[in-house]
Amino acid sequence: MTEKLFARLQEIYPELVTFRRDLHMYPELSFQEKETPRKVADFLTQLGLEVRTEVGGRGVMGILRGGKPGKTVAFRADFDALPIQDEKRVDYKSRIPGVMHACGHDIHTAALLGVAKVLSEVKDELEGNVIFIHQFAEEVIPGGAKAMIEDGCLSGVDVIYGAHVASHLPFGTVGVGEGHLMAAGDTFEIDIYGAGGHGATPHLTVDPLVVGSQILLNLQQIVSRRVDPLKPAVVTVGSFNGGEAYNVIPDTAKMKGTVRTFDKDVQDLIEKSIGQITAAACESAGASFQYKYERGYPSVWNHPEETKRIEQLAKKLFGDEKVGHEPPHMGMEDFSYYLQKVPGTFFWVGGRDEEGDKSYPHHHPKFDVDERAILTIGQLFVSACLNYISDGLVTPELQKEVGF
Ligand SMILES: [Zn+2]
Ligand SMILES: [Zn+2]
Fold first, then answer.
1. Most exposed among 19, 294, 333, 376, judged by the fewest C-beta atoms under 10 Å?
2. Strand-strand pairing, 184-193 and 252-261
3. Of 33, 80, 186, 207, which one is the catalytic site residue?
4. Which regions of 171-318 does DSSP assign to beta strands (E)?
5. How many CB atoms lie within 10 A of CB 170?
6. Which domains does the chain have, with CATH numbers?
7. Is 32 exposed, middle or buried (0-12, 13-18, 19+ CB in 10 A)?
8. Which ligand is nearest to the CA of 108?
9. What's the number of CA atoms in the CB half-sphere (13 Å) around residue 1?
10. Keyword Metal-binding, does the record have it (predicted)?
11. How far is CA 84 from CA 27, 35, 133, 317, 352, in A?
12. How many A from CA of 291 to the centre of ligand 1?
């Protein structure tokens, strides 16, 4: 069956490229997606699937019920674009000023639709169900995943897989990683209220810039002195503002920053520490403050068995040398919410075009990838689906490897 489905994927590949390029030409920003979910829903409806729209807001779900009872496998693709001006020279460049598919979510969408199409053609033979989750707003917190889950997109789901095309990996390769793959990303804001005055009479003021500077420097001690050195963490202040004139001490100063962590304990510790450091500096200077800490996406934690499954399938499909272990990195992804609910894994699929002009990083105005990544994702999803539903929790080979 796998061979047959791969052949079909190959046959419909031109259609998937056309779909991808259409999305690429008409990208839509997070939380503003309108035409994209409509196009996705139309495609799924034409396949004869049960389709739910406006899931959690702007999400779309395709539900494929197999001819025989069995497990339920879910796949997720995101479909939002970014506020970036497309600077590529290709005929499918963005037609929308200032908006661009600069992360590859158009590739994910086309790949998942391809998987839906080929699996729907064999649905009578399928022992189990498949849920296609087309997610809105991955790029902007609070993201679409959480809302889609709250709206029931994971109900009855046994396992979930997600893939991201990677411009840092060459086309044809796959990157997997067990456990922590991507970080939790939070933001914080500190407003410092002093008492302004003349720059020549600082003794009559409470200078919020000096207090803020102290806070900024002391924040550097959180990672170096308070966090376990074996646990990765980042505290970055990205903005520190206050005052405008040469000779005026302002009343207020404002600081903004981001925190990246993998462990919840570390995240809690950092949130608390920023507050303590701020309070101490303000108290000793007689300033007051307001501290706001907002949690973004949790860290992506890949379940070991499902990660091994993808690794093993990828090695079988593309060769051992094409599959690597990806180290965790400090970027974030709201796929983490799905993995908190059901087992699964998120993996990277190489999209770097070695010959062409497509090796720019994600979120770059010239970002593009080798479109054949659509096929890589499609093949892996199809084989993961068949492998999971036909063999239950683990394959015999996997059983040996993970010692079940
Ligand atoms: Zn992105
Ligand atoms: Zn992305």
1. 294
2. antiparallel
3. 80
4. 174-176, 179-182, 184-193, 197-198, 233-241, 248-249, 252-261, 288-294, 300-302
5. 15
6. 2-182+299-402 (3.40.630.10), 184-297 (3.30.70.360)
7. middle
8. 2
9. 18
10. yes
11. 10, 19, 25, 35, 20
12. 28
Report the separation in Å between the CA atom of 80 and the middle of ligand 1, taken as the mean of its atom positions: 9
Q: At what angle do helices 2-25 and 35-46 cross, to 10 degrees?
A: 150
Q: Which two tokens stand for residue 219?
A: 């924040």
203 is in an annotated binding site: no
> Residue 49 is encoded by which pair of tokens?
């699937």
Name the one residue in this structure whose structure tokens are 């007689």: 286
Q: What pLDDT sits at residue 353?
A: 81
* Ligand with smallest separation from the Cα of 166: 2
**Catalytic residue from among 138, 311, 353, 370:** 138
Element (H, E) at 63: strand 59-65
Query: Is the pTM of the predicted complex or chain greater than 0.85?
Result: yes
Distance 164 CA to ligand 2 centre (A): 7
- Ligand 2 (ion): residues with CB under 5 Å are 103
| Per-residue tokens: 370 | 């080798």
- How far does Cα 157 stand from its chain's mean position? 20
- To the query of whether residue 306 is one of the catalytic residues in this protein, the response is no
Q: CA quadruple 373, 378, 379, 384: dihedral positive or negative?
A: positive
Q: Per the annotation, does 103 bind a ligand?
A: yes
Distance from residue 223's CA to the centre of ligand 1 (Å): 26
Q: Which two tokens stand for residue 44?
A: 């799924």
Per-block mean pLDDT, blocks of 10 residues, the chain (404 long):
91 98 98 98 98 98 94 97 95 97 98 98 93 97 97 97 96 96 96 98 98 98 97 96 97 97 96 98 98 96 96 95 94 96 98 77 94 97 92 49 40
What per-residue confidence (pLDDT) applies to 319? 96
Which-ligand-closest: CA of 363? 1
Alpha-carbon distance of 20 to 295, in angstroms, equals 33
CA of 265 to the centre of ligand 2 (A): 26
- The answer to whether 101 is a known ligand-binding residue is no
Q: Which residues contact 228 (CB under 8 A, 6 or more apart)?
A: 266
SS3 274: helix
Cα separation values, 266 from 185, 241, 270, 309, 330, Å? 12, 28, 6, 30, 14
Distance CA 344, CA 221 (A): 36
